[in-house]
Amino acid sequence: MIELEVLIKPICLFTLGSSEPSTIIDIPFYKVSTPTGDEPTIPGSSVKGALRSSATVIANDLGLTSCGEIDPERMSEKHSKMGGLCDVCKLFGAPNSPSNLLISSFKPLKPLDLVTITQVSIDDLRMRAIEGRLFTREAVPPGTVFKGKLTLLRDKPLFVKLLLASLINLRFEVLGQHGVVDVKVENIKGLEATELDSLSLKLLKSLERWWYELP
Asked: Residues of the chain whose pLDDT is less than 50?
C-alpha cells in the first residue's frame, strides 16, 4: 500500500458547486459541516473523477490501455471487445472490479473567505449573453491550498506510473466549474525511489514542486 499526501492549488477563481440548494447563491461552493462551521471542501469523488479523465487522456502515451468510457454498460462492452479490463479501469475501478485507489476529501490548509462572483448567463445554443439574466457563484481565491490523501491499495509499477502521470496531467485539465489547478505531492509513504523506473522518477520529481508560479 502506498499513501501520497497531495496538495491542490487553484490558479484562478475556483468553484466546485454543491447540490445543496441556496436561496442566496445560485452556485454555492461545496462545504462540509464541522464543529466550527461549514468548511469549503473538494470531495474525493470529484478529484477521482478528474484524475480518471486525466488518466484516460494520457494512458496511450504511457503505452497503457484505456476503454475511454464512463458509462458502466458501455464500459463492459468495450472491455469485452478488448479481451479484459483496460489499465485505467484496473486502477480506478469498473463494474464488478473494485477500485485500487482511495481518495480522501481535500481540506483547505488555512481558514478562507469565499468570494461571491456575479456573471452574465450564457445561452449555450446561441453562445450569446442572455440579456438581463445574471447568476452568482461562490469561489475560492487563486493560491488557496487544499490537502488530501491518495491511497494506492496495490503498489504495482503500472498503477504508480499511471497515477503520477494523471496527477501531472491534471494541471492541464479542469476540476470543478472549469477550474485550472496546480498539483504537488508533499509526502509519500510505502514507496522507495529505487522501486521506480526512470519515467516514474521523472514524474515524481516534477510533482515535488508547483508548476505554476503565482504572483
From this structure: none
